[in-house]
Specification:
With 499 residues, the chain is an all-alpha fold. It has helices at 7-16, 47-58, 62-65, 69-74, 77-104, 111-119, 121-156, 163-183, 185-215, 236-247, 263-292, 295-300, 304-313, 320-348, 367-371, 373-383, 386-414, 427-446, 448-459, 461-470, 475-492; strands spanning 358-360, 494-496.
Length: 499
Amino acid sequence: MNRSISANNDAKLASDGQKSSQNGKSPGGKLHKGGEKKVELGKKVTLLRGISIIVGTIIGAGIFISPKGILKHSGSVGMSLIVWIACGVLSLFGALSYAELGTCIKKSGGHYTYIMEAFGPQMAFIRLWADLIAIRPAAMAVISLAFGQYILEPFFMPCSIPPMAVKLATATGITSVMYLNSMSVTWTARIQIILTVSKLVAIATIILPGMYLLFKGETKNFENAFDLNSIQLSGMPLAFYSGMYAYAGWFYLNFVTEEVDNPEKTVPLAICISMAIVTSCYVLTNVAYYTVMSAEELLASEAVAVTFAETLFGNFSIAVPVFVALSCFGSMNGGHFALSRMFYVASREGQLPEVLSMIHVRRHTPLAAVLILYPMTLLQLFVGDIYSLLNFMSFLRWLFIGVVVLGLIYLRYTKPDLPRPFKVPIFIPVVFCLTCFFMVFLSLYSDPFNTGIGFAMSLTGIPAYYIFIYFSRPHWLQKALDSFNRTLQIILEVVPADQ
């Protein structure tokens, strides 16, 4: 089919291409006069879907495999449970702060959008730059590698899995996530719900037997739970660091605010319900582990849930790797669904190529924004040193989240009349902001070399901002970008969203 590359013909293609979809209905959008549909991202994220995005993204492989960082650094069973609860409360403080931002700034994009509103485009671009060149591809590759490892484990037990087989399974998982997010917002959300339910079922199979044994009197591992001789005060900061990392992901619903149905009510409610579910799951799962295993056995185990299942269920423990793989896939799917919207918004703000803010004419998905991480993630997977890169960049997560919450406090004073349907007491963002900056300081203190490299990598965003954004582009470069946008627009069948 011959297509003109002019904007007018692309717009005509959009209106012509929306008369039907896979099921004979438009997957989203509002009616124009005459029965035509608007090309836009519809409000498909309901309360249940919002909860599934948050819960499904926070709960990854860690709680099943190695929830022992907190126990190792806190030194006792009782203190480790207190740290799990305290980190859940602190994460709730951060989530409530983001709930206020999500209801008063009704734009998608999460951290990027809030930094843009509070501190301007240069700071927002530095955050975007760090995400794009390193953080997100590396983080996606790591959780995907866990998926590849555990999806193959039942087929190779008790032998080790060839590294290339793991990478190929990982690449297949990444491709599946990209394809799903490209095809349908509705089906992405539905599958996220299914994956989240499967995680909760897996956690329930740990919690219920553990609670049963606990109520039957299996309490020997809780004796001397607060033994002062074993508590390590010097390790408490690292225990909190491990705990806060385990809860990270509560902010992902804010990346899709524009697609949330009735965000003033849905965003705060979804965040509060999700944090209650996750905190309860984490604490009760650890109680169940301690009921069956001693602290020494838990620290010695390479995969805690497998050891737990072997002790109670025998051969049924072979199902644990499957549940872990599904859990990882849920984190991949939910995280990518949210992150693609950040690139979509950054393009709309003029800080990324224009094609990334365009919508597929029939699927109503931000196709280019979904696919942008695909080549970089595969590159990291096969040729990059992923774990070193994550060591460089992990502190930046808490630095920028701290900056976002500092922006909330700043906006309280610079824009006091901004409508705030949901408003938290000021001590909540203050406490959480101090927590974030303490974690940044802890990273600098414990690993100054890697943290310094990560900081230097992020600062390369400053010259990049002036070269690509601030100064006028040379004519030849602008012409090349226009040609790039038009070519991709035709190949991907995407057009600008209707306003």
